[in-house]
What does this fold into?
Amino acid sequence: MLINKLSEINKGNINDQIEAIVLITEIKLKLTKNEKKYADLSLQDASKKIEAKCWEVDENENFLLSLKANEAVKIKAVVGEYQGSIQLTIKEMERAKEGEVNIRSLIPTSDWGIDSMKKGLQFFYDKVQSPHLRLLLDLMIFSDDHYERFSTYPAARRVHHNFYHGLLQHVLEVLKFSYTVATTKRLTDRQIERLIVMGFLHDWAKIFEYKPLPESGFTEEGTMLGHIFMGAHKTLNVMKEIADFDEEDKLIILNGILGHHGKLEFGSPVLPKTVEAQILHHADIMSGDVESIQSFMSEDGNNEESFTGRLWNMGTEYYKKG
Amino acid sequence: MLINKLSEINKGNINDQIEAIVLITEIKLKLTKNEKKYADLSLQDASKKIEAKCWEVDENENFLLSLKANEAVKIKAVVGEYQGSIQLTIKEMERAKEGEVNIRSLIPTSDWGIDSMKKGLQFFYDKVQSPHLRLLLDLMIFSDDHYERFSTYPAARRVHHNFYHGLLQHVLEVLKFSYTVATTKRLTDRQIERLIVMGFLHDWAKIFEYKPLPESGFTEEGTMLGHIFMGAHKTLNVMKEIADFDEEDKLIILNGILGHHGKLEFGSPVLPKTVEAQILHHADIMSGDVESIQSFMSEDGNNEESFTGRLWNMGTEYYKKG
Amino acid sequence: MLINKLSEINKGNINDQIEAIVLITEIKLKLTKNEKKYADLSLQDASKKIEAKCWEVDENENFLLSLKANEAVKIKAVVGEYQGSIQLTIKEMERAKEGEVNIRSLIPTSDWGIDSMKKGLQFFYDKVQSPHLRLLLDLMIFSDDHYERFSTYPAARRVHHNFYHGLLQHVLEVLKFSYTVATTKRLTDRQIERLIVMGFLHDWAKIFEYKPLPESGFTEEGTMLGHIFMGAHKTLNVMKEIADFDEEDKLIILNGILGHHGKLEFGSPVLPKTVEAQILHHADIMSGDVESIQSFMSEDGNNEESFTGRLWNMGTEYYKKG
Amino acid sequence: MLINKLSEINKGNINDQIEAIVLITEIKLKLTKNEKKYADLSLQDASKKIEAKCWEVDENENFLLSLKANEAVKIKAVVGEYQGSIQLTIKEMERAKEGEVNIRSLIPTSDWGIDSMKKGLQFFYDKVQSPHLRLLLDLMIFSDDHYERFSTYPAARRVHHNFYHGLLQHVLEVLKFSYTVATTKRLTDRQIERLIVMGFLHDWAKIFEYKPLPESGFTEEGTMLGHIFMGAHKTLNVMKEIADFDEEDKLIILNGILGHHGKLEFGSPVLPKTVEAQILHHADIMSGDVESIQSFMSEDGNNEESFTGRLWNMGTEYYKKG
Amino acid sequence: MLINKLSEINKGNINDQIEAIVLITEIKLKLTKNEKKYADLSLQDASKKIEAKCWEVDENENFLLSLKANEAVKIKAVVGEYQGSIQLTIKEMERAKEGEVNIRSLIPTSDWGIDSMKKGLQFFYDKVQSPHLRLLLDLMIFSDDHYERFSTYPAARRVHHNFYHGLLQHVLEVLKFSYTVATTKRLTDRQIERLIVMGFLHDWAKIFEYKPLPESGFTEEGTMLGHIFMGAHKTLNVMKEIADFDEEDKLIILNGILGHHGKLEFGSPVLPKTVEAQILHHADIMSGDVESIQSFMSEDGNNEESFTGRLWNMGTEYYKKG
Amino acid sequence: MLINKLSEINKGNINDQIEAIVLITEIKLKLTKNEKKYADLSLQDASKKIEAKCWEVDENENFLLSLKANEAVKIKAVVGEYQGSIQLTIKEMERAKEGEVNIRSLIPTSDWGIDSMKKGLQFFYDKVQSPHLRLLLDLMIFSDDHYERFSTYPAARRVHHNFYHGLLQHVLEVLKFSYTVATTKRLTDRQIERLIVMGFLHDWAKIFEYKPLPESGFTEEGTMLGHIFMGAHKTLNVMKEIADFDEEDKLIILNGILGHHGKLEFGSPVLPKTVEAQILHHADIMSGDVESIQSFMSEDGNNEESFTGRLWNMGTEYYKKG
It folds into this structure.
């Protein structure tokens, strides 16, 4: 049975043999206690992650050792289950042939819709009327150099927005939340324009801090320098290219990028020094925390308990009823 | 010269004699080093706070000793200034006669407009369609027992929303911010209704935690029990009065009220355990922090410095340019 | 060999076959690396916890899958040992028949003796002379609605007082410690009466926060609301039922319940605001910490080391000599 | 009017001239803004502390400059009051003549009674039956070298037990609390003996850490080394003098002294590693905190407020009603 | 009597009239309680800071109001003293005429000697053999754009190295300490070269973060962006100008600058990720802390106490004997 | 093939049979899931640590159970590898005969060279000219009672300087770093002498806190009392033996030992109260942190990643390039 999405597999398929094209996210050869080799695999497609075992290693060892994370493979496997979780036992596996699969189609993706998100970007871009600020956005976001990455990168390595278009979705959330606060609290037009620019740019450097999907992890400069420095550095250089960039806007926008983690202990080298920067910081936490809880709860498979397990970055469990 | 608002006084009035009706917010008799008595007063009307001295104490000592905070007085005073700040020297002072002044008119008040705020309340109330939740709001907010206090109390003793209608404005801010997040993040209708109810009720018990304006300070039960306990306690009792109140809604709403400070060290006895409760918490901080900065900056009189002083609850200074 | 208590088994019984009636506290089916199923069990009776394996799963799989935590079973097993710890290999197992065993007899129980503890309760109850405070205790503790639970529940899920009558023993410890402090430090009779009432009530709501033994874990309302809120809430409602309950006693007792964890970061929404509340807090910690260390050290089986392992809630190891 | 105790002065004495013998605890010469010198004094006797001014400095400047803290003086003064607090205006002042006053009678003193406290010491000493532990107490406490200091020193510089016999009272409190816990929790006789010894010795070195009353402050070695090190150091040396001092008792008692502050951040270089040491720690905090609150509340003069001010070492205010 | 250095004034000069040229560091007009104006001044020259009063304000008010911090004035004053501290009473004051004084000579200055410090710079510069690293130092430090500021600025606003050449002295200290560690711990030549470059550059941006002496305070960009960002930003731009700048050196040096505060909570947006960066961090703290204690103790005037007061940034007092 | 150093084994030896004399650092008998016994061993010699398995347990069980950590054994084993790490499969094993091996030669050792380190000790000893300080060093360090231990013990149980001569190397590092700071910052000769003495003595008591190598772990008194107390205690006793030991030196040196962890939360019961003590503290951290990073990076075997794993005591990962 050829299946299109891993999420189609359910407990009705136990003992069925399935065929699928999946992405390997992790592969390890291990030894049983009685010295038999087997392979432990983590697989995914855009719809789901799933665990698998391959017990016939000996005859395939070289092939298995040659496989790497982020390769697409075609598998034949038997659906199993043990105490609640579905697990595959792989019977046959081969590299997906070139042209047979688009890796992109195996990567989890924002469910907001790219067209809708582009309209969102346009909406906020249009609010920015000051020419120097528009130009800053043009050069940082809408240039050929960056737009592709900006619109496809994830916004985190795990927990929240760690999917295709994740950064884009996160930026739009931050812009929406910030804009509601800004209009409710009657910020001036100039403050609002700056806040929008800061929303666009605050996590911009994640396009250099992370490796592109399906990889997940930091680049060397990401670990050594961090997106906060890298983003403010690039922004300042682009500002210098723009003739007569307003000096106060410059300081406020850079402070907003540097300060958007809100506290020194979260990696901001300076605190937010304007009301815009403070709004940006809270909107950023709001976006990350809400998405963390929602995605964590949607992945929680066990429906017998009233509460999820503990979500590590939030420090608590969540109520699943209601 | 009779003046209507303290905010009318400016440096052009130095040495003018003015007459005004003001509220005493603090009065202390002190001794100069050469044993001369004088009185230090803090005065306000709805527009401004101002400091004053009265040097002729001896002949008026009994009258001065009889004055208390939150009394309205009619003063004649000379406008002075020393190194930048306006200060009054009181020449004559008498208690405002009954009927001569409405204390209410001397208290700082939300500039949002009560009609507009009532429309806001209605907007969010209308989003709550579940009968048991509507009834909860009817009994907690829109009952004769509480509506007067709910719609006039401040939401803090100082720093933010510490003015007439302050609680109401804060609740509306929290509702607006939460609602934007809830719709953006596609919460279910049931989640949204609960979040609105939690927004209405989270600080409800401040109407018993604080003394009414123009007093500022905690009631005894406010200090001993706190608004978090008092609010959840009352809400639970009202829920019990409502036939067949949904059990999950009950736990989630109460957890939202108990958890709205977000962390144990900020006085929540339990953490937020739902996405609604987490949104409420961030919207609450957003409202308080943004108002803190805005009101602090608007009171900062000295225009020679680029930065304000340090805002104690935010731990930093703010940039005044831009 | 039929044994009455698991604690009777010692290293002299290695390779003996024993029969016993025990409670399952955990059961999991697992797979060896060569795909053989086996069951891992945690068993206990009132005297001891013990680990067991069952290697013959295939023929019994349905029976094993049907077993749940907190069921009593009759087992035949061989006593084994490997590098120091006794472990059972189960050969036969069947559900205990109705009437064959009282689950209660398989649960660890306070060794203080229920009669002695009842005398203790009476002693402190007799010290409370004020009618309204007596009535509060009558309704909260000595009523048919609560006495059964109050006198049998544990006071914690693990580490200390997590046994039958555990709450009762903990309350008596807190009362004894508090009373010594109160008389030594010459508190007034009124303060002492309030302190006794607070000692009785501070953890009262654990009878709704926890599931009854032999289950161990939180109820839904326990996790969502916590015993601090639930206890103060119920106490306040009972106080309101009592005619003319003294207002100051009300605030002080409620503050004592709310504040008994001593610091906000430990889950008290307000700090202790009276000397009675502070005594209660320290007596509560004293009881929990001392019991933690004693029970941890009594379970430590390895007598070759001078120190125990690290006790997680105390953050250190303990000296076993002396 | 000659008065015997400063606490006799009340608002009925305003404008009376009084005579008294008092201790100077602080004296400072200051300049009024119009360059007139005056003296600010803090005075006390065993019953009360009081503030005083002396306006006639010029003719007495040399005498005033020669006065030091902790000298006894005879004063004639006029009783004054301003906004609630009694204050003296000194008209005449001279050094108390030798023999005219016993400084000791001007120092606040434990109200427990020295005879009663000696009985307390004997009670706990008698519980210690092991010869080596008795000998340790004999040499550390009941020797001619230390008993005088041990029985008269304060246990703190301020806040709690900072009075004559303060250390003795604190030690007895710790012993009483610890002993109740030890018997309630059924410690072995050996544990109880060690706990009593630790109670006696834990703060012993305060007799070298502080200056003797009426001075208040640290000695040089007190600041540089602290009573925790100094006490354990001396105790270990005395143990070495005792033939065949049990090795385990040695480690446990020293660990108890070193660990009695309970956490590294409170100055204990090691954590408590036995149940005795943990009991000692909690009994020590209990004694200090309860006395802090009681003495703070008894000094709070203003009866118009429901709450005291904030007690700095406890971090909160206290409720004065009830 | 014309004096050359304020530090020449001693208690033997009481009542002498002196003449001196000094820098005003603070001036405030104040009102005595009996409404007489006076001026409070803080004065300094390179040798000492001193407090002064001017009682004759009325006739000079316009002149006094026109004076600003950091102006040089010629004063005639009477030397006074009250309870230990020398204080001046100004009798005459006029602005120092152009050419009459070099402001520079009134500013505290490193006592290391500029020639000696230049030799130190050269010593470490010579250790850097890699052309791209040399060029980096040439462009950042030894260029006409920056050398003047780099060699004269202070390294802190207060407490340590807040004097002329302070940054230079601090950099040399950091280089010396680091170099000893690097050679002792056998770092490779490449690591040592990088460490030297990081020592030169870590606080480089203080030349834009602070205002030049005698002013003391942050520039706008200093407060909004901070020297950590500004320094790494400029360094990265200069690196980009250097052909084929080694990529690993780039990341390591930038990480060293960004991480030199050692922990996020001290304002580093990333942690030190190399052994060089960790050495730099500890050498930086060593230099700041040691200088803090030395300068604090040298300013402590009161020789009657064994300990200084509490040094705010170190959190403790220091022993003055020995 | 007889090998001399485990570090000689490399991937070219896969499937070779080797013979070696090694030290067992850990041995555990375990059960495979199909109930087959095997042994897990950690082995080392001076050059390297290596993991090993022994599958033939049954016939050798008594011998294996008799083996303990820190025994030397002669093994024949086959070199294997699985996914990158070398691992041995033991075929034959016997206890090394007496005389066949010197345990000492199997323990990792400082690579500084003992002669060079002795010269270092002499260099710093010669800087101490004051007779009472020299005598203190003679009695504490260079006496027959302590020199053997002092010159061979490790300075930590793991992470840094946990090798033969480790304490000696650490002391020399601290002395070198301190001395550079002291001369750079122009401390007086007396301060420098004290600082050297403090460098020699600060960790002295580790010779009683740890068990001797090849054991690794704390002695009972080490855990109960700690090296900070034990070192200051012994030092004070030796000072008392020295006639007329300067009182200020005594307090300063003891404070330096007690305070060398720099903060209470790191186990110092008092803070450093002199500039010498502060220098000592920073030099101590510098030595430990730098060695931690260097030894951690040298053990990191995997060369495919740009960064090491997280070093637990430093809280971060390190960059391996450059």
